[in-house]
Amino acid sequence: MELSTKVAVVTGSGQGLGLAYAKELARRGVAVVINDVDQATADTAVAEIVESGGRAIAVVAPVGSAETAERLVAAAVEEFGRLDVLVTNAGILRDKVLWKMTDEDFDAVIDVHLRGTFTCVRRAVQRFREQGEGGRIICVGSPAGQRGNFGQTNYSAAKAGIVGMVRTWAMELKRAGITVNAVCPVAATAMTETIPFLAPHVESMKRGEPLPAVIRRDVGMGTPEDAAGVVAFLASEAAAEITGQAISVGGDRLALWSHPQLTTTAFHDGGWSADDIATEWAATFDHAVESVGEEFPEEVRAR
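and the corresponding structure tokens:
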């Protein structure tokens, strides 16, 4: 899995999952552009990578605008000569139930997660096409975007939108040799601390205590480092034929999310009136109605 000639931009990589991705890429020889909104955090991340023998620089800017996307790609090219990998990890939370969520709460999350992914991928793809050697796009999604999550209208919408864009881009960029995939990690971070029944496990991990098997396997949650291997894999030639996928990773679990598809179908000559649907629903569709939200083992929820 040779990556020592590669150059990557990892957004939101000053800490947490983004830093874990950046450090794993750097460990494998990738030159990395670190991105964060805080100068001290970004500088610390760069220092950790450099002190470990890696190559890294920092761009301090909020993700969302086309200007930031341009700065990130330009920094990679100016410092390291090219760009091969983009990991769009930057994100924020503004969790509230629907009736309390403000326009500002909604717009802030959509701007960083969804618009930021769009602007950064667009600029990276332009550079990849100029280089003519393909490239790797790795977008960070979430189980919340696949199944929804209480209090996360904005976040769930953004993460669902990211996977939708990934599937579209995989088709559009195939001929250029550019792969596009989504990684949906579950890790003990500041973000998962906001989920009440997971918070105690995050605190346990901070104290150096190992996460129990039910968390690492059944919930699929681990450390940020547990989620980093799949990013390095997708950046490598070993994943050259993998595109358009949503990959779940966390703890001891690696899995593929299915693409939405029709599960139950009925036909009615001349179309469906409301009365027809009411008659058919119980017999044909009731048993196939999908659940919402993540489903966790009872022993986890009971803690």
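(Above: one complete record from the training split.) The domain at 7-256 is CATH 3.40.50.720 (Rossmann fold).
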